[in-house]
Amino acid sequence: MNASSKLKYLRFITGRHDLPFYTPDYVQLQKSFLDAFLKGHDPEGWTQGKPARVGYRVRTGDVGYNNTEKEDVYPTKYYPSWPVPETQYVKYFLTASNGLTQSPSQSEQDMKLSYDALGNLKDPKSVRFTSNPFTEEIEFTGHVVAHLNVSVTASGGATPRDIDLFVTLRHLDSTGKEIYYTGTVGDPVPVSKGWLRCSLRAVKSSHPQHTSWRPYREYRSSDHSPLEQGKVYEVDVEIWPTNVVLQAGDKLVFEVASGDTQGAGLFEHNSKEDRNEATFKGTNHIHFGKDAQNWVSMPVIPK
């Protein structure tokens, strides 16, 4: 999005981070691109500005994971730019009854859901929010943001001053089974993940790269702001851009956890020095009420 060249091409793959590049189709694509810019041999028109600049595989159906041949059934779409033109950013609101709905809460009553602040891949603590079954097929492709109202309180004599948020989007089929996709090292992963250390929650909304669907942070040391126990903070959590198609009957799940959940691959956050008990041990809360709306902004692609 911020590359200065007028000739910009973006290609999204499915599967592992390495193997898709070695299939015959992708090898030919790469050779065509390199021949154009390095050898001047350009029958495809790369140097003249190919009209389709963004291509991605549409993850639809349950084909399993870590199987390149089965993932070849995914169709491919092309668009002239990224994010996809005419993307509609739709908010799905979290409810205190663990729901996920397009209607914001009208309740005047203040409520909260809580979970232990420290956990790991073997024993994560989490709160999940699940949508009703979708009534028709829907495609989500692009950037995702979660907006949460959170606080932390002490437990076990600790004095917590921070929250690490681990959020996950999951896809359930009409039977309630979770559909997994291929992770970077071939492991089964959910739709997407996001993280935020709340002491680094500061967003620079005046920056030209800041958008409603991708909050801009500078992560300066001066931005560091420890939390006060019991005080409610509004935070925006950036979630990795993703693509998934939900069929009629499928459900979307949004999870907030105390640590890495299944799908973290090789990139776990398990350093006891980085996530020490003195700073993080406590009880995390998500607050609900008239002035505390929590939501996930999803990128819907019009049909």
For the structure shown, list the relevant keywords.
Jelly Rolls, 2 domains, mainly beta, 8% helix, three-stranded mixed beta sheet, 303 residues, eleven-stranded mixed beta sheet
Q: Helicity range of the residues?
A: under 10%
Order of helices and strands: EHEHEEEEEEEEEEEEHEE
Provide the CATH top-level class of the largest domain: Mainly Beta
In the predicted model, the low-confidence regions spanning at least 5 consecutive residues are none
The structural domain count equals 2
The biggest beta sheet reads: 11 strands, mixed
Helix-strand makeup class: mainly beta
Short description:
The chain is mainly beta and 303 residues long.
Question: Can you put this structure into words, describing what you see?
Answer:
The chain has 303 residues and is mainly β. The chain folds into 2 domains: 10-79, no CATH class; 88-300, Sandwich (Jelly Rolls), CATH 2.60.120. Helix content is 8%, strand content 33%. The chain has helices at 24-39, 68-71, 277-280, and strands at 10-11, 54-57, 76-79, 88-94, 99-101, 111-116, 126-131, 138-153, 164-172, 181-182, 188-189, 192-197, 233-246, 251-257, 283-288, 295-300. β4 (88-94) and β5 form a beta hairpin. The longest helix is centred in the first third of the chain and has 16 residues, at 24-39. The model has no long low-confidence stretch (mean pLDDT 93).
